[in-house]
Amino acid sequence: MAVQARTRRQRARVVEVADAAEGVRRIVLEPEHPEHAAPGTHIDVETGNGVGRVRSYSVVRSEDGGRRLTLSVQLSPTSRGGSAAMHRLRVGDELSVTGPLQNFPLAVGAARYVLVAGGIGVTALVAMASALRRRGADYELVLAGRSRAVMAYLDDLAAEHGDRVRIHVDDEGTPLAVDDLVAGIARSSASAATELYMCGPIGLMDAVSQSWAEHGLPAANLRFETFGSSGRHPAEEFLVRLPQLGREITVAPDTSILDALDAAGVETLSDCRKGECGLCLAKVVGATGTVDHRDVFLSESQKERSSSLCLCVSRAAAADGGPAGPAVLSLHLT
Ligand code: FES
């Protein structure tokens, strides 16, 4: 079903816009062909004219059989396209969207669920938490952020889920201690039957994954959504050289390599565009800076070797103390 929805683009009208937190806009859409959006689904949205302006956003709420879909979008400080265009939307505007697409399904029947949201990653977990409450499941919702002002849906979630919510705020001196959280799961009597769902910055998700493995918890019980991920370095402009084609292409801070290549007319392969499937892998034949791997397809040791990268999400950052000017990545497309 998801494949059909992915190929069927449709119009959706903006019927509400409001602030959900500092720098986060809540946008309610009425799609032309309503379809209920299950917990964990997202829609792909064309956020401007031309190639390379498709962004994926979690469906925060699906009401009235999918007639009203709520998204929430964090404004990227470097955005000139995606999130900035979404923040400019007004009631009555129209967008081209897909139907709901499912890459992050909520399983039925776990003894216990732990949902971990970092920052804007909460958007992937709001509907899941509601579904678990309605099912009468045993669950805990862990919300982590830099400060309360930028954490969307905090009050709504606290009101809906009461003492099942744990809030960790960096500037209040209560940051999330990932290892304590995972160690607590490992010590519990339901450890082997606890599922953890997470969405947030890549540093948080890496820390959870590492701790999960160190405590010997089942890998299949750890599930994640990646498109809220940020890299280890701030997004900056860099250059991609393609020696096989004799081309050099600039990648702006708010554009992926894949989108920059598409816009320059260079043919590429891709599917998920979220760093999960590996279809867009390219060989790295040289780099003046650091490769900022933002995918979940390559293993940690492959990322350390950096002999390939995922064009759809990974980037380059100028090395501290390295040559002046933007980083340069030389790639061989396969
Ligand atoms: S398109 Fe799937 S990893 Fe890049």
Quick summary:
The protein is α+β, with helices and mostly antiparallel strands and 334 residues long. It has 8 helices and 20 strands. The structure holds FE2/S2 (inorganic) cluster.
* Series of secondary-structure elements, N-terminal to C-terminal: HEEEEEEHEEEHEHEHEHEEEHEEHEEE
CATH superfamily of the largest domain: Nucleotide-binding domain of ferredoxin-NADP reductase (FNR) module
- The radius of gyration computed from the alpha-carbon positions, rounded to a whole number of angstroms, is 20 Å
Distance between the termini: 30 Å
Helix content: 10-25%
Number of domains: 3
Shape: globular
The largest sheet, given as strand count, sense and whether it forms a barrel, is: 8 strands, antiparallel
The CATH architecture classification of the largest domain is: 3-Layer(aba) Sandwich
* CATH class assignment of the largest domain: Alpha Beta
**What is the count of β-strands?**
20
Enumerate the spans where pLDDT stays under 50 for 5 or more consecutive residues. Answer: 1-6
Ions and ligands: FE2/S2 (inorganic) cluster
Class by alpha and beta content: alpha+beta
Write down the CATH topology of the largest domain: Rossmann fold
SS element count, helices = 8
Percent strand equals 25-35%
Mean of residue pLDDT values = 90
